[in-house]
Amino acid sequence: MAQNISDNNKRIAKNTIALYFRTFITMLVGLYTGRVMLQALGVDNYGINNVVGGIVGMSSLITSTMSAAISRYITYSIGQGNKERLKTMFSTSVNAQIVMSILAVVILEIFGLWFLSSKASIPEGRMVAAHWVFQCSLISLVIGLISSPYNALLVAHERMGIYAYTSIAEVALKLAVVFIILAFDGDRLILLSILNVLVGLGMRIFYGWYCSKHFEESQYSIKVFDKGLLKELTVFSGWNLINNGAWVFATQGVNMLVNVFFGVAFNAARGIAQTVNGAVQGFVGNFTMAFSPQITKTYAAGDKTYAISLGNRGTKFAWLMMYIFIVPVCCEADTLLHIWLGQVPSWAALFLRFAMFESLAVSSGQNLFRLIQADGHVKNYSIMAAITAGLIFPMAWLLYYLGAPVWTAYLVFIIDFFLLNLVRFYYLKKLMPFSIRQFLRDVFLPCILVSIISFIIPLAVCHYMERGLLRFFINVPIAVLWTGICCYIFGLTQNERLFFRSKVTAIINKIT
């Protein structure tokens, strides 16, 4: 048992390192791509791309539920060691996604085009380009849906190395796309949409080739369509559907509200904030991705206590990692965006600060949600989670209608998602031997302590120095170093500190 736990810890550490290498490269390239794209498209086109893509993003109300179910059942089958069920599950999943793609296209062609033509605030003369973005986003959606079972296999088998390399290749191709549109004299927004489809298609072909070569269960057959497995997937997805629906309206739906009440320029500012925040969230999300297969596999093997321990540790690590970014970004958001973009859209710095805490609220419960998914009994949880998260969209609409400022939606989102963790506590307690007291002692209190102390020195620097490049290059290293020290001293247990030191020593020894 102890050896298995040690092997799992090593695997999680190895996968996390691989994912961090991937995210470091993709973050740098992605941030540079965002800057060049803003320059190439301009504020209005950038905002159009953000809001029109959000219309298709609304389709995740339907599609992402099935993708999550596929990932869970594939990982669960690997944890049980049931190879025959795994083969049947894979082909059934691909066929289900093909059907889901057809449904999504039909629904979006009807309702998405209606919203685009009658409700979206598209600047005069840009409707044709907006339609191109919409149709290309639809094609990308279909490609992504059919690819999801292949991606689920990579994550379930914990092949994080190949996942990292392909992600780096994908962002490199997207950077090449941006340079191509810079040299283009025609409608750059249309060309960007077409080239993004080609990039997605290329990655889909590669994933299919790699999985068919390395995983025997990935031999797809159009004839394999197990109705029993499909029913399990559908029931699991169905109860998650209302939960994901609330999430979609809280994110893409709020983007549309901002567009309707304030215009595409504010969507551009939200898009800029989301680009930086997305890079940071991807960095922190590596812990969730590295922990998630182990949580599901361990739970499937019957070791609920260790699965809960993994969920708690993953939650704490995600919070601490998030704060290493939150402190310097919140203190130096204006200068950071100025260095990155040169000309910064109005409100972008404020949006970025709010978006960082928005991501903290989301990441604080991801591993707890993985535990609930691992158990499989998601009906009652999904209903309560949907009711809680579903308040965001109507609350934001009401506040905007009453004249509230544009940043209000961020505040509503943050408060709501922290409250959602209370719902998760309640159902974890019902489904498994989950101790709320232990979670508060081992996770919540250390995280709150780090959250308070880590801001002291960086805010003092902000108080005594004027904003500018000098303060930025002094304060950012101080903020990162000080927050890291706070995480190490106040956030980690003695055993976690020993494990951390051993890994750092091993890395230094390899380098030297």
Which secondary structure elements does this structure contain, and how are they paired or packed?
Blueprint: H1 2-57, H2 60-80, H3 83-118, H4 127-156, H5 160-182, H6 188-214, H7 227-262, H8 264-300, H9 304-331, H10 333-341, H11 348-363, H12 366-375, H13 379-389, H14 392-401, H15 408-431, H16 436-453, H17 456-464, H18 469-491, H19 494-511
What does this structure look like?
The two termini are about 35 Å apart. The longest helix has about 55 residues. The chain has one domain. It is mainly alpha-helical and about 500 residues long. The model has no long low-confidence stretch (mean pLDDT about 75). The protein has 19 helices and no strands. It is globular. About 45% of the residues are buried.
The residue ranges in which pLDDT falls below 50 over 5 or more consecutive positions are none
What's the structural domain tally? 1
Shape: globular
Helix content: over 70%
> How many strands appear in the DSSP assignment?
0
How do you describe this structure in short?
This protein has 512 residues and is mainly α. The chain has one domain.
List key phrases describing it.
mainly alpha; single chain; 512 residues; 86% helix
